[in-house]
Amino acid sequence: MLEQTALDGDFAKRHLVNPVLLRMLGDLTRQRVLDASCGNGYLSRILAGRDATVVGVEPGQLLFDFAVEQETIAPRGIQYVQADLCDLPDLGGPFNAVIASMVLPAIPTWTGAMRACVHALKPGGLFLFTVNHPCYEQLWPTWREHGGYRTHRYLTEYEIPGPSGVDFHRTLSTYLNQVTSLGCQLTELAEPGLDPDAAIEAPTAIDAYVHLPNFLIVAARRTT
Ligand SMILES: C[S@@+](CC[C@H](N)C(=O)[O-])C[C@H]1O[C@@H](n2cnc3c(N)ncnc32)[C@H](O)[C@@H]1O
Fold first, then answer.
1. Would you say residue 157 lies in a domain?
2. What is the CATH number of the domain that holds 189?
3. How far does residue 176's CA lie from ligand 1's centre (Å)?
4. Strand 121-132 to strand 158-162: parallel, antiparallel, or no bridges (unpaired)?
5. Residue 144: inside a domain
6. CA of 196 to the centre of ligand 1 (A)
7. pTM to 2 decimals?
8. Which residue among 17, 73, 82, 115 is least packed, with the fewest CB closer than 10 Å?
9. How many domains does the chain have?
10. Distance 105 CA to ligand 1 centre (A)
11. How far apart are CA 82 and CA 107, in angstroms?
C-alpha cells in the first residue's frame, strides 16, 4: 500500500487534491515548505521536484521509515523529522508555506496541531489544509448504499473508524473559525469535483465524486 501511493497518493488525491494544492502554492522555487504529517512522503517528493526546500514531519514509525528510505534511494534534499505536530522540535526556521493534508481530522488534539502549523509560518506565509468535506463525510460508502448522500448528524463531533485509525468529524465552521482565530486570513476555499472523464478511469465507478465534493481544501495566510 505504501508503495502503491508513493508516487502521487491514491486516485482521489491524484485527481482532486494534488492539482488544487499545487495551484494554490504556485511557484515553489527557493520556498521553504513544511509537509506537516507527511505520511509516506509522496507530497514532499512532489514539492521537492518543484524546487521547494522541504521538511516533512511524521510521527508514525512505518511511514517515517518509508519516507526516509525513499530519500536514501533517490535524494531530493528533503529533511524528514519524526515528531508529533503538537510537540514540534526546532525545524530550522520559519516556512513560506505549511501543508497539512488530511491530517487534522486524525488528531484528537487538533487545535494544538493547527496552532503549530500556523506558528511555523513566516508572517504572510501560506497555510493549506485539506479534510474530508465535513458536510459529506463518508461520501462514497453512503452513495454506494443509498444511491445518494445521506447523513443523520453533523453538529456534534464524532469518531469515524477507518482502515488506518479513527478520524474525527468536526463541522466546517469549527475548522474555519479556528484558523481565523489564529491570526490567519482565509484566501480561498476549494471543493473540487471529479472530471467525468477521469471518473471513467476510476477503479470503481466514483460517480459520487463527480456530483458532490469529497474534500474541502482551505488556503489561509498568516497575517501577523
Ligand atoms: C490520512 S494520513 C495523511 C498523510 C499525508 N498527509 C497524506 O496526505 O498522505 C494522516 C497522518 O496524520 C498523522 N498523525 C496522526 N496524529 C498525528 C499527530 N499527533 N501529529 C502529527 N501527525 C499525526 C499520521 O501519522 C498520518 O501520517
1. no
2. 3.40.50.150
3. 20
4. unpaired
5. no
6. 30
7. 0.96
8. 73
9. 1
10. 9
11. 16
Query: For a substitution probing ligand 1, which of 103, 159, 214 has the most ligand atoms within 8 Å of its CB?
Result: 103
Domain, as residue range, for 53: 11-133+172-222
CA of 39 to the centre of ligand 1 (A): 6
Rounded to whole angstroms, the Cα distance separating 111 from 170 reads 12
Ligand 1 neighbours (beta carbon < 6 A): 9, 37-39, 58-60, 63, 84-86, 101-103, 106-107, 113
Tell whether 147 is covered by a domain.
Answer: no
Q: Which residues pair with 127 in a beta bridge?
A: 98, 220
CA distance 190 to 218: 7
CA distances from 126 to 46, 73, 104, 118, 157 (A): 18, 30, 17, 9, 27
Rounded to whole angstroms, the Cα distance separating 122 from 126 reads 8
Answer yes or no: is 151 within a domain.
Answer: no
Residue nearest to atom 9 of ligand 1 (CA): 39
Q: The sheet that has 215-222: what strands, in order across it?
A: 79-81, 53-57, 32-36, 95-101, 121-132, 215-222, 184-190
CB 134 within 8 A of CB 106: no
